[in-house]
Amino acid sequence: MSEPLEIIFSEDGNIFYQELASRIATACEEISYPAKLRSAQEIERLAKEDLQERVAVLVMPSECLISVGNSREFLSAVASAKKRILLLAEAMEDKWWEAQFQLPVEYDAFVDVGFVSQEEKTASLSAPYHFLFDGPTEPQRRVLERGVSSEKRSIPWTLVGNMGEGRAELLMDLIEEVNPGGFVFLPKAHARRRQAILEKTHWMLSPSELSRVLKHTRYYVWCSRHSFKYYESFRFIEALLAGAVPCKIVGEDFWKETDVPCIFSSVEDFGKRIRSVGFDRMFQSSRDYYLSWGLLSEHLRKVLDDVL
Amino acid sequence: MFSDPRLQTSVGRIESSLLDLGEFSEYFRDHKEPDGLTIFIPNWNHRAFLPRSLRSAMDSLRYLGKEGFSGEILVIDDASRDGSQKFLRSVQALYNEPRLRTICLNKNLGLTRLRNLALLSSKHRYVCLLDADNELIPENLPMFMRGTIETDAALLYGNLILKEGREAKTTVSDIKPTWFLVDQNYVDAFAIVNAERLLRIGGYSRPHPYLPDDWEMNVHLIAEEETIVFLPAVFGYYHRQPLSANTENAPHRETSMAALRRIYGQSGPRGWDSERVGRMYHPDIGFID
Q: Cβ distance A163 to B161 under 8 Å?
């Protein structure tokens, strides 16, 4: 019998992780795997015995802790689960990955969600590593199989995220070398962020707000806020579902070995490509790549077979 | 000099006469054209930077014209001693541009009064406040004009790329209009304002020597429940100079905050302390939040 999952996330944390938790729950449903989506606050209120026969899948647990009132109750509930799986989508060298290990939680497995496995970086991990390809859910696949139109996409490019290293330079290059009229939202993740989470101040774009922006956008551009080898699959998916082309700008050459489309070594290269190839063909190559990998649920089934 | 709080209060009350600019009434425009933009450049000893800001303003007029907006450039020199006035007279003579107005003062008014003089003297209802060391992105200005008109904003701001030399360091004026605007001076004066609306609520004021008048205005607009809009595109370049005024004010944030609370927060937190105080808008999308 399948061990039922409790997919635990923070309702007040990073919207991307809320989306990821929800997509994992949808994927479980697609393969008829028993799973419940639970906010961290719900878990805090559960009796210990409620989790004893279940597997806790913790999605970005450090944010869960910020959003719960009583961290001891939360951690105690998590500790009572039959197994604990850490589910993340971050570069393993990054502070967000590290932050999860500051918590007093013993994990039975690590699941890394993305497009490119980080297996080569896992030597120091205390539990088995599993890579989960971040494929589309069934409803997402249906959306992608419909065509998109470049008409009415009046915003040439969109750059959204936290202001971090390299992003101001990227912005200036986009203005000077591509088109000055892009959509730009790069607030700083400043010291008041924790307070903003607690007071539920919506200082970032919600998923529906971002989707509205991307439906008017041709190219959704980003660069990592770090120089580690990592591809932000959630950005790719956000772009594609809204009909925009996902374009990552990187300064390094280690991406040459991957088959993820629309990765550029500079804004200049990006500018050349959009002028020579154009929106329609770039969108098509991204969509074909993504659909060729199959559904998230198929990949999840394999990972669950290995982990449980 | 301002360590004595009673002296601060006195200074604040003297500053309350900031709209008393009757001696300049010859420049005032009572009837403002409703669908054009005055690009206002205040100048005080920024001779070296004027060519850059003026060039971006002139290019902006061209782009505004392409989309059917009228415009003018208003430069008010605040009794500079670095050759700025001679330069401005040369530019006026050289370009013979009727949409460029220069006013050279022979006594120094200070930036706050200068801004109020511009609001009173602008030909157009909408005024873009472009400090002499900053630079507009001309192609984007029509989009910001459309945003201002479509939202009926009293203040509309967009991202500014902060540059040091040739290097882009970060952005400013880059956040959604939430209570953060009360908490810190996140939105620079380099934005578009509705001159009539700002004058109706008393114009710019500087009730404390270390309290920047743009921050005070933002909080004032929030308190008066005027419309503040963030348009998420790049409005211009904010060139940080080693001796710029914002660098001087930065260490005195707590003092500034205390002065703001004295005016706007005596009864404790208000509704806008916990949530948004304006909207996010893009002309191609509509209201986003």
A: no
Tokens 């990972």: give the residue: A303
Q: Does A180 touch chain B (CB under 8 A)?
A: yes
For B143, the closest chain A residue by CA position comes to A181
Burial class (CB in 10 A: 0-12, 13-18, 19+), A3: middle
For chain B, 289 residues long, give each residue's pLDDT as a single digit of tens.
Answer: 445 555 455 455 445 556 778 899 999 998 999 989 999 999 999 999 999 999 999 999 999 999 999 999 999 999 999 999 999 999 999 988 999 999 999 999 999 999 999 999 999 999 999 999 999 999 999 999 999 999 999 999 999 999 999 999 999 999 988 877 887 788 999 999 999 999 999 999 988 888 889 999 999 998 888 999 999 999 999 998 776 665 666 677 778 778 887 788 766 555 555 567 899 999 999 999 8
Alpha helices in B156-225 (DSSP H): 180-183, 195-200, 213-223
How many Å apart are CA A146 and CA A54, to the nearest integer? 38
- Tell whether B94 lies on the interface with A, counting CB pairs under 8 A: no
Residue pair A133/A115 in contact (Cβ under 8 Å)? The answer is yes
- Maximum average pLDDT range among A245-254, A256-265, B121-130: B121-130
Main-chain phi, psi angles of B88, to 5 degrees: -65, -40
Residues 6+ apart with CB under 8 A from A85: A55, A56, A57, A58, A107, A108, A109, A110, A111, A307
Q: Which residue of A has its CA nearest to B275?
A: A201
Query: CA-CA distance, A152 to A243, in Å (whole number)?
Result: 11
Q: Which amino acid is at A140?
A: Q
Higher-confidence position of A298 and A69: A298
Q: List for chain A the helix, strand, coil content (%; round to 5).
A: 45, 20, 40
> How many Å apart are CA B22 and CA B20, to the nearest integer?
6
> What tokens does B40 get?
């206002």
Gap between the Cα atoms of A86 and A105, Å rounded: 10
Structure-block tokens of residue A123: 């030597």
* CA nearest neighbour of A126 among A101, A91, A89: A101
In 3D space, the residue among B170, B146, B148, B167 whose CA is nearest the CA of residue B157 turns out to be B148
Residues 6+ apart with CB under 8 A from A297: A26, A27, A28, A30, A31, A135, A137, A138
Check CB contact of B178 with chain A, cutoff 8 Å. yes
Predicted model pTM: 0.90
Tell me if B284 and A216 make a contact (CB, 8 A cut-off). yes
Residue B179 to residue A201, Cβ atoms within 8 A: yes
CA distance A85 to A46: 18
- What are the pLDDT digits (tens) for A113-137? 999 999 988 878 889 999 999 999 9
Q: Tell me, what's the pLDDT at B2?
A: 45
How far is it, in rounded angstroms, from Cα A259 to Cα B262? 60
- Asked whether the beta carbons of B144 and B129 are under 8 A apart, the reply is no
Given CB atoms, is A15 within the 8 Å cutoff of chain B? no
